[in-house]
Amino acid sequence: QLQLQESGPGLVKPSETLSLTCTISGGSISSSSYYWGWIRQPPGKGLEWIGSIYYSGSTYYNPSLKSRVTISVDTSKNQFSLKLSSVTAADTAVYYCASQGVEWELRTWGQGTLVTVSS
Amino acid sequence: QSALTQPRSVSGSPGQSVTISCTGTSSDVGGYNYVSWYQQHPGKAPKLMIYDVNKRPSGVPDRFSGSKSGNTASLTISGLQAEDEADYYCCSYAGSYTVFGGGTKLTVL
Predict the structure, then answer these.
(1) B97 close contact with A: CB closer than 8 A
(2) Does B95 contact chain A (CB < 8 Å)?
(3) What average pLDDT score do residues B78-88 get?
(4) Which of A78, A105, B16, B104 falls between 20 and 30 A from A38, CA-CA?
(5) Of B34, B51, B103, which is closest to A46 when you measure between CB atoms?
(6) Could you read off the pLDDT of B15-55 as tens digits, one per residue?
(7) What is the pLDDT of residue B1?
(8) What is the dihedral of CA B21, A94, A54, A78, to 10 degrees?
């Protein structure tokens, strides 16, 4: 059974870069059935899709975040990662990683990790 | 890339049916049959309930159904149960990216 787990710092200073990793178990990041995505949810607010990546390295980003986002994949570790640069308090959110099917549905989600942007 | 429009809240009594709407544009909901719906209980990760407008993943009760007409998609929950009380989000492919609705809080009275 596919499982995903986010990891990374829970506190990031303003203007710095937020970095998170998602580790996949019970499946291969090289599967042709999935893309791998990041989604976030500010406290008390709705969901926002950040972007996704295919194991080959093809990436797709939310146009509103594209200038600050980089998603990468490490097939040797069965992981994919998110980097969000120049963060502000508005980037404080629970960040989720998820498997994304070819019809762009988000099938399996990690439990989420809260990242707070504060000095 | 505006968020899709959902009602902020809906409610219904156990056993009744409720429908949650999700309005977009011809560039997202109206342009593709890649609409999905997610259920989120407080403090939990979202769960996929419907994809491709009206398909249910394995394990999702057939009380949950989806449809689409023009630029508006809908999620219908029939035979409401207490455990259906949650937030529901629609989501649509919009041409190389995905956009969510603002979310709807379902209260089971």
Answers:
(1) yes
(2) no
(3) 98
(4) B104
(5) B103
(6) 999 999 999 999 999 999 999 999 999 999 999 999 999 99
(7) 60
(8) -140
- Establish if B37 touches chain A: CB-CB under 8 angstroms: no
Q: How far apart are CA B109 and CA A92, in angstroms?
A: 33
Q: Which of B51, B99, B101 is nearest residue A105 as measured by Cβ atoms?
A: B51
Torsion angle in degrees (nearest 10) through CA of A42, B103, B88, A93: -10
Number of A/B CB contacts below 8 angstroms equals 65
Q: Would the CB atoms of A106 and B38 count as touching at under 8 Å?
A: yes
Euclidean distance between CA atoms B42 and A78, whole angstroms = 29
Q: How far apart are CA B45 and CA A29, in angstroms?
A: 21
Give the tokens for residue A101.
Answer: 């099917």
For chain A, give the mean pLDDT.
96
B54-81 pLDDT, tens digit each: 999 999 999 999 999 999 999 999 999 9
Residue with tokens 């090289």: A30
